[in-house]
Structure formats: C-alpha cells, structure tokens
Amino acid sequence: xxxxxxxxxxxxxxxxxxxxxxxxxxxxxxxxxxxxxxxxxxxxxxxxxxxxxxxxxxxxxxxxxxxxxxxxxxxxxxxxxxxxxxxxxxxxxxxxxxxxxxxxxxxxxxxxxxxxxxxxxxxxxxxxxxxxxxxxxxxxxxxxxxxxxxxxxxxxxxxxxxxxxxxxxxxxxxxxxxxxxxxxxxxxxxxxxxxxxxxxxxxxxxxxxxxxxxxxxxxxxxxxxxxxxxxxxxxxxxxxxxx
Length: 243
Hints:
10 helices, 243 residues, Glutaredoxin, 2 domains
C-alpha cells in the first residue's frame, strides 16, 4: 500500500462499526492509519473532544474518517462508504443504482443496531448480566423474525442483477458490508445461521466472493483483523442462540 491518505478513528479493541469501513478500504486497497490502534482509546477520546470544541461540524461518535491532506472529517458508516465510493470512483456509473446501494447500506445499519439490541435491549449503559431476561426475549424475536426478514430483503436485492455482487460482477460497499454482516451473525448466532444457510444461496455466494477479493483475503488473514469478542456488536452468548 502507498502512504496513508486517511486516518480512521475507532475503538482499538473491537471490530464494531469500524470494521465495515476497514473491510471496504482493504478491498479497495486504500491506505489508512487506524489511529486508536496505533495509539490507544484515550487518543480517540481526546481527538473527539478537540473536534467538539473546535466549533466545526464534529462527529457524534466513531467511526469517523479524516482525509489527511484537507483535514476533512466524515462520520457514520454509510456516509463514509458512500463518500469513499464517490471519491475513489468505485460507483457503478448509474446514479439510480448507486443510490439504491446506499439505501441497502442504510438497511445494514438498521440490522446492525438490532444485533446490538439483542444483548443490550434495556440500556447500552447496563451490563449484559443486568438485562439477561430481556435479552433472552429480544434475541428470540430477532432470531425467529428479524434475521429472516432482513436476509429475505438482501436475497431479493441480489437477484436484481446477475451476481455474485449486489450490482452484478463488480463489488461495492454493500457487498463488503454484507460479508461482515454474515460473519458477525455466524459468530453471534451460529446455530440459527446454520439452520438458515440453505435459504440464502445468493447471500452466501456474495459473502464467499467478497472473501476472495485479494485485499479482503489478506486483511482477514492478518493481525490487523481484530477477532470477534464479547465487547463488540456481534457477541456470542450460548443462551441467546437457537435454531
């Protein structure tokens, strides 16, 4: 990779929402510095505070991406990915298709929020152990109703073009994000995802095709890829998983 043109700010010990940005940049071979990982979480906190105090438009929360040359900062996963796609000319060239891809990316944002709420249905500030009963009910509804509803939507969208990717033969930010979504759901709900796998051949084909993108394959196999853990969004609690 060339000299980093961007600084990515996100928590250093989890994949979280930052991983959706990391995977896209790996696939596109876009060089960046993962600032909190090259430093620590306190560096992120201090950078956020400085941006809030600057009087400029500041990100509400990480992840956010900073263009080194201009100092421009942009936050929110879908917003970051759409901006990078346009800046690096990675779109389809068709405005309607590109807007539909952003629409799908925002739907991925929705399901990721629901994943988080399966283990923190009462309040994000409470420990999981303080809301286990509510989490059990939330996870059951998510497994039985919400996962199939979302995956049905993505499967139907993948059928619009001759795949394996959402826009056809060329990958997009949606495909790298679907890869991470499938990986995360498999980690958090392995039994449920195994039971559902046969119902979503296009989604699994998309996941597998993204895994073969050179930059993604190298990134996933490297030490830069943080392992899933029970501090992130996708968490595996045995009691929350079922077929």
